[in-house]
Amino acid sequence: MKAIAGFAILIGFNAAGIWLHDELQLLLPGNVLGLILFLAALWTKIIRLEWVEQAADFLLKHMLLFFVPYVVGTMAFFSVLAEHWISILVSIVGSTFAVLYVTGYVAQKSQSNSAKRPLTPTETRKKGSAA
Amino acid sequence: MNELFQGIWFGLAFTIAAYFFGKWLQKHVSWIHPIISSAGALIAFLYLTGIPLESYEQGADLISLVLGPATVALGVPIYKHRALIKERFIGMILSIVCGAAAAVITVFVTMKAFGENAELQYSMLPKSVTAPIAVEIANTIGGIPEMAAVFTAITGVIGALIGHTFLRATGIRDEASQGIAMGTAAHGFGTSRCLTESEIQGTFSGVAMGLMGVLTSLMLAFILMIF
Hints:
The complex is a heterodimer. By secondary structure, chain A is mainly alpha-helical. Chain A is built from six helices and no strands. By secondary structure, chain B is mostly helical. Helix content of chain B is about 80%, strand content about 0%. Chain B contains twelve helices and no strands. Chain B has helices at about 5-30, 35-50, 55-65, 65-75, 75-80, 80-85, 90-115, 120-125, 130-140, 145-170, 175-195, 200-225. Chain B starts with 6 loop residues before the first helix and ends with a helix. In chain B, about 55% of the residues are buried. Chains A and B meet through helix 1, helix 2, helix 3, helix 4 and helix 5 of A and helix 1, helix 2, helix 3, helix 4 and helix 5 of B.
């Protein structure tokens, strides 16, 4: 029952985000707007974490499943991939290294500047999303 | 025989079956990521049987619909770890914004250098973002969602495979920073990899992944607004 209510809430926020996107012609994707609205609702305690936790954990655990059809859909674009594979691979590998380095470097620098303290148990608790 | 592959049930049932096959296979052959094996099995099946992609998509599209609510669900881990985010707020936001900028700029420059068309460029811009958001960003800015999906998967696989080796080699040894870098560069694939290192890394990576999705969306929307 709780899970169903949770799903309904998540679907509702997604729908609200899509509606905002269409209605206001915003450049942010509808699902991201939904996520932002949802975070705002959690922070202001309009939505309680325990209402949505079960449903959210389920969706995050199986995120890969929802994404499979899109990867299968690339079948229709195999000729494009075959033709452009060198530039695609070089761009992705090069860019991934750049993002790793820039992010890691800035994170490490900013961290050594702030005071260090050990993490509390809640902070180190395992997080189980997969995609 | 043919009716079996019509209607919504075929795509729905086969996608779920392929997904659990991929999960099962990973337990035995750990280096094969489930997205590769499940999508690969489905593609091979469609090729061999000659069933058109459209018949598959009738049911499969229903599964893709869940990506929307699944994106909203990313808010839960972010909210749960709000104390952590608050504590390192400036550092996290700053490093992820720099990472998002690095992603967009490097893709733009390399694809431009190769003389690739705009559609392909736009499809690759969100490649470091978690899949459900990447697909929608591509949709919004004029890329091809399917291409964005495959670029995202390739990025994730590469990042998860060599990320830690690269970070250590470049002197980034701090656990939290490694997690943030992996989540920002390789989204969920990087996060799963981080969880095998330590819980701290996994947590930072998961939070960074969610923030990266939101920040990249904002950044690209901002760029589109100006130009």
